[in-house]
Design goal:
By secondary structure, this protein is an alpha/beta fold. The protein has a single domain, classed as Alpha-Beta Barrel (TIM Barrel). About 40% of the residues lie in helices and about 15% in strands. It has an 8-stranded parallel beta barrel, surrounded by 6 helices. Strand 7, helix 10 and strand 8 form a beta-alpha-beta unit. The two termini are about 15 Å apart. The chain binds phosphoenolpyruvate. The site of phosphoenolpyruvate has 13 residues, from strand 8. Phosphoenolpyruvate binds next to strand 8.
Length: about 250
């Protein structure tokens, strides 16, 4: 059985006090969870230690939103895998479209980041997604295949247990536009088939593939009902504890 996951990407939101408040609200609401969905929260770097300590005795995991590809050295302003490990964080989001777009993260760089993270025992939530233009040109399958091929399909078969994929069509992130359940299922099935071809069916069947892009309690039930949709990577709606838990209760 694949793991069901609902992960909240808090992006550059919530200072320390706001982080503490939101974490407490989420933690307090976990007793209303009606399934065993894995919850993950990804606050900003400065609040990871607080989050990791606050959630220590819970089943909620803490993820970083990024990590540097190198282990240490003269990389001013960057954060390493060891720094994350030392504050109790062993999960990282990589390849988010905002990192690709605003910070120039390329497929080869992401490949390096994935390798570094895996080498240090991290779980990686790896994001892929096409732009609106790419979808309108009917290039979306090719774009996703290339993103996976150039950044992820080098990893060893054994390490797939540490990978979660998030399909996030760029045109649906923060726009209020959601992919239809049919569009999400179609792409998730395509991704799973690629993994089966490149590795094997058992590996493909074991990978949780999350959908991301304007997921909210109003659309999560239909999205999560799709055969190959194993949960969501949530942006805006993850900043509200009630919505976040409602989404987690949508399976
Ligand atoms: C995201 O940034 O990963 C995301 C899915 O954002 P939103 O839910 O706000 O579209």
């Amino acid at each position: 059985m694949r793991k069901k996951i609902v992960a909240g990407n808090w992006k550059m939101n919530c200072n320390l006090d706001e982080t503490k408040t939101l974490l407490k609200e989420i933690k307090d609401k976990t007793n209303t969870l009606n399934n065993n969905t894995q919850l993950i929260v990804a606050p900003a770097f400065t609040n990871l230690l607080t989050a990791a300590e606050f959630l220590k005795e819970t089943n909620i995991k803490v993820a970083a939103q990024n990590v540097h590809a190198e282990e240490k050295g003269a990389f001013t302003g960057e954060i390493s895998v060891d720094m994350l490990s030392s504050v109790g964080v062993k999960t990282v989001i990589l390849g988010h479209s905002e990192r690709r777009k605003y910070f120039g993260e390329t497929k080869p760089l992401l490949n390096k980041k994935v390798n570094t993270a895996l080498r240090h025992g991290f779980e990686v939530i790896f994001c892929v997604g096409e732009s609106l233009e790419e979808r309108e040109k009917n290039n979306h399958f090719k774009v996703i295949e290339e993103q996976l091929d150039k950044s992820l399909f080098y990893i060893k078969k054994e390490t797939w247990k540490k990978i979660v994929i998030a399909y996030e069509p760029v045109w649906a992130i923060g726009t209020g536009k959601t992919a239809s359940a049919k569009q999400a299922q179609e792409m998730h099935a395509f991704i799973r088939e690629l993994i089966a071809q490149k590795y094997d069916q058992a590996t493909a069947d074991g990978v949780s593939i999350l959908y991301g892009g304007s997921v909210k309690p109003e659309n999560s039930t239909e999205l999560f009902a799709q055969k190959d949709v194993d949960g969501g990577l949530i942006g805006g709606a993850a900043l509200n504890a009630e919505s976040f838990i409602k989404i987690a209760n949508s399976f």
